[in-house]
Amino acid sequence: MAVYKPKVVEGKISGTGWPIDGHTLILSLWDYDDYESWHLAYWTDKDDSAVMETMYITETAAGLCLYDTLEEFIKHWPEWDPEGSFCIPLENVEVLKTLQVETKEVGSFKDVDAGGLKQLIICVYRFPEDFPDKCIARIFDGTKPTNIVIIRESVEEIREDIIKSSPDKIPFARCKEDCKSIVESWI
């Protein structure tokens, strides 16, 4: 079974007309809605007031707010729980830092339908920045990374999976220009 992790970023909000404009928030981007908007994931205490006012304004405009005044909403803010995810249009977010790349972890590459890829390449990493205590392999379509990975304890375990799932692939050692965590690429 695949384990999915969305892309997570620090993003500066602008142009919404909401109190969160100018604030840097933690946002996620998901495949289930075809990457149509950023989803508010987390905010710091210094952003809490702006987020609270934004929630009140948007819930009131949508006819979903349980409270008639901002003062009532503020009083109940500590126990407030959203009924869904708060979405921000893509064009209103400047990505400042990627905190987590989108990944779809599969048990084995043999479980992947790679029929739509033009050139399947599997890149093997030892302790990459996004998985600092693991070895991973990511499928690429030519030079473009996909979100599909396998995660193992060792490079040898990854090689075993690649050999079983893609016996036609040949390993090539890391080039000096490659990221230091890359071990090899199977082409």
Q: Notable features of this structure?
A:
187 residues; alpha+beta; 7-stranded mixed β-sheet; 5-stranded antiparallel β-sheet; 3 helices; 17% helix; elongated
Explain what this protein looks like in three dimensions.
The structure is a single chain. Helices cover 17% and strands 36% of the residues. The chain has 187 residues and is an alpha+beta fold. A 7-stranded mixed sheet has the order 1-7-10-9-8-12-11. The two termini are 26 Å apart.
Topology of this structure?
Blueprint: E1 3-5, E2 7-13, E3 24-29, E4 37-42, H1 48-61, H2 70-76, E5 87-89, E6 93-100, E7 103-105, E8 120-126, E9 135-141, E10 144-152, H3 155-165, E11 171-173, E12 182-186
Parallel strand pairs: 7-10
Antiparallel strand pairs: 1-7, 2-3, 2-6, 3-4, 4-5, 8-9, 8-12, 9-10, 11-12
**Residue fraction in strands:** 35-45%
Q: How far apart lie the N and C ends?
A: 26 Å
How many β strands by DSSP?
Answer: 12
Summarize model confidence as the mean pLDDT. Answer: 94
Q: Note the run of SSEs as H and E.
A: EEEEHHEEEEEEHEE
Largest sheet: 7 strands, mixed
Radius of gyration: 21 Å
Main sheet: which strands, in order across? 1-7-10-9-8-12-11
Number of helices: 3
pLDDT < 50 stretches: none
Residue share in helix: 10-25%
Shape: elongated
